[in-house]
Please model this.
Amino acid sequence: MIELKKQINKIKKSYFSFADLRKIAKINDNSLRVVISRMIKAGEINPLLKGYYCLDLADINWEKFAIEIYNPSYFSFEWALGYYNILSQKTYSLTLATAKRSRKFNASEKNIIYRHIQPKLYWGYIIKDKYLIAEPEKAFLDLAYLSLNGYAKFDIEEMNMDLLNKKKIKTYLKKINSKKLNLLLKDF
Model:
């Protein structure tokens, strides 16, 4: 157990997976599960999700973690709008778009929500701070699109619309090609 702890300290990420531990441990999977359980009980490591752990919760890069555990995905919706200061309130949950099925994880102290979007809508993101995030206009449209079927709350009154590029929104609306979305945003 002491040797494994030394090896864990050499991992260059703020979190690690069971697969990471399997690579550095010189024991079989069942024995590794027992060692991990003992380390958790002793307070030497913290569980994040099933199969994911960390030494210190304060060191976790939650954005990087969220992108890694369920990809492809990119930050969008309320989280991205809060990041860009378009939404008047920051959200506690990390919200991401994915072409895979929707999922929700409660990872220690964070809620991570993956919302399904159609594969044809999986675009409009950039790399920022080493993770994928929707452009402001795409995050706005992603949230509006989800609200059409009641999957999200969309309230323009809670947003600083001056921070959005209206020409880019019009271009993106044409690309999305949704009559319902166009109707929702016609007064915008």
Summary: The CA atoms of residues 47 and 53 lie 4 Å apart. Helices lie at 2-9, 18-24, 29-41, 62-69, 77-83, 136-147, 166-176, 179-184. DSSP finds eight helices and nine strands in the chain.
